[in-house]
Amino acid sequence: MAHQKRAGNSEQIPFPPPAASVSRRGFLTGAGAASLAAAAVPLSATRAARGASPATPDGTPEQIHLTWGDDPSRVVVVSWASAAQAVNPRVHFGGDCSLGRTVPAVQRTYTDGLNGQTVFTYHARLEDLRPDSLHHYAVTADNDSHGADPFKATFRTAPKHRAPFRWTSYGDLATPVTAWVLSYPQSRYAVEAVERFQPLFHLLNGDLCYANLNPAAQPAVWADFGNNNQTSAAFRPWMPCVGNHEIEFNNGAQGFTSYLTRYTLPDNQTPFPGRWYSFRVGSALFISLSADDVIYQDGGAFVGGPAPLTPAASTGNQAIEPGTSLYINGYSGGAQTRWLERTLREAREDDDIDWIIVQMHQDALSSSRTGNGSDLGIREAWLPLFDRYGVDLVLCGHDHDYERSWPVRGCNHDVGQDAVTGAVVDTRQPSPVATAPAADGTFDTTHGTIHLILGGGGTSAPLDVYGVDAANDSAQAKIFTRANRPVAGGTAGTFIRLGADALEDAIWSAQRDTGTGYGIAVFDLDPGERGGKTSITINYYHAPGADKVPTPDYQLFETVVLAKARRGRRDDGHDHDDERDHG
Ligand SMILES: [Fe+2]
Ligand SMILES: [Fe+2]
Fold first, then answer.
1. pLDDT digits over 23-32, tens only?
2. Contacts of 548 (CB under 8 A, 6+ apart)
3. What are phi and psi of 62, to 5 degrees?
4. What is the distance of C-alpha 376 from the center of its chain?
5. How many CB atoms within 10 Å of residue 131?
6. Alpha-carbon 176 to chain mean position
7. What is Dmax (Cα atoms) for the chain?
8. What ligand has the least distance to the C-alpha of 174?
9. pLDDT by residue (tens digit) across 267-278?
10. In DSSP terms, which residues pair with 454 in a beta bridge?
11. Closest among 388, 349, 386 to 567, alpha carbons compared
12. 75 C-alpha to center of ligand 1: Å?
């Protein structure tokens, strides 16, 4: 078994056969779709194929997407938006096409605090579903212009107990509509890539659409994002986390109102619903975090000047002066970290949980030179908890590239340096516990946490140039160790935010994709046998050439296998093994 393939392997390796059957021919047909050229995709092309937006705004569902409920084996939430208020919005659903059950949707609206547009969203919670089963649903309303033949799709619920399953992940998706800042047609191919792999669900690691870089048109950017995603997110849950570009002026205390209104996410039972959460699928616990709460970097909404940002008069909001940024470090007052520790501790006390996977946007271990780099805030607040409770994998975005760390545990002190003065800085340099796979080609994450940067969704700004220490030619990372609040820029009345302030040798960096900033990670979890090992096989596919020309061609870059002893006693009657719930 070749567990770890060489990076940049030129061998054309076909996509592995997905769990559900999509033939390679089907994949290639989809991949070769010539209609999605490199040129800007017009707005209409990102709408649902049937043309969601009618001439007169009505209740026609668009931006349809699924998320897991609190128990992914039993509850799935269908969410959508419509151009005008929907009348009697609802979902019909069932185990077959007869769609025998109906659930009304809850309406949630907000008015964008910059351009004054009111956004109508709808959320229907489908409960008491059968685990590990295909379900059919239709989304409609009394004023749905397609009411005679409403939007229909299918999804699969999660297995209740230990079972094999697949998920995929990337962050930093943007939209295919190049009129928007940071949008790029690769965003369309990235959504298609998820469908080719047919995962049970997808993790979207923050910086969803960069609406906050298009402040006069935030709701329109979100709509283009939602309609682009619908091709996949209506057929399998897309579980997001908040990134710095979800922080918007005048949209709630942390600027998350656009995000929070559109998504219904598992309850964290704190005063901060939707910002962070966890869910369990089979033998894996997934934890989604809001890293802006703990990081030093100031990366949210910002007015660089010289002109102020002036909201539409209808909002009644004041002009936002140059040099203003919405910096939300510490917003939860420690509530998120307390929740995280409790959640991790409970997971470690549960013998049915073999794997703990964390999703967040910003990076504790990134050595991108053209990107943001690492953040000491995560290293201080959360890495000690990941160590104590044995987090296996951390999936991030933020830097638009691919980087994989060795398994790390603990840290080295006082080995960093100030980027300007060279003075010693304690960057808490993560310490690798292995710099090669074990003899069997696998990594045992019992001994250390592997961090993956998966920021290659679909933005126009790949950041796949990495730091090198000129003195010794080894990998070098930059690290934020203090807040980079706005300072005066080069011209009068302008402001900038400086980059990371410290440097360290990236002794923890195992792999960096210098070929392209775009890709998708595919994870296949094998629960293994009782008393044996369980594994997660990671296949990272990148899109060579996408840095210059958008491409549907995703090729295998590397394969990494994590393997560890499965938990639970050999003769433990409570170990559910591979038993399936047919309830
Ligand atoms: Fe980003
Ligand atoms: Fe980001």
1. 222 222 222 2
2. none
3. -145, 175
4. 21
5. 19
6. 17
7. 73
8. 1
9. 999 999 999 999
10. 402
11. 349
12. 30
